[in-house]
Amino acid sequence: MTTLQERFEAAAEEVKSLTKRPTDVELLELYALYKQATVGDNDTGKPGMFDLKGKKKWEYWTNLKGTSKEECQEKYIAKVEEYVGKYRD
């Protein structure tokens, strides 16, 4: 039986095999879950007002503040499984 960490790492590799691009919101959700699962709470400064992409990424990650590593890993794995069915031929 594989551990949660092993399943998470496998999902992080599997997401690279998508043949179609998920939506921007889906990518932001994946990014935020991955960062929260690997780094923890966001303690970086908010990007400047002209860095729109960086600001969105920061906001999505910050919204997960206090969420456990394990919970984020589980949610990340579930999203990757959903997207593999949706975005891979």
From TrEMBL:
Membrane-spanning ranges: none
Statement: the UniProt record of this protein carries the keyword rRNA-binding: no
One Pfam family per UniProt: ACBP
Residues covered by the ACB domain: 4-89
Matches recorded under PANTHER family: ACYL-COA BINDING PROTEIN 1, ISOFORM A, ACYL-COA-BINDING PROTEIN, ACBP
Organism field: Sipha flava
Top-level taxonomy: Eukaryota, Metazoa, Ecdysozoa, Arthropoda, Hexapoda
Entry-linked PROSITE patterns: ACB_2 (PS51228)
Family the UniProt entry places it in: Belongs to the ACBP family.
Listed name of the protein: Acyl-CoA-binding protein homolog
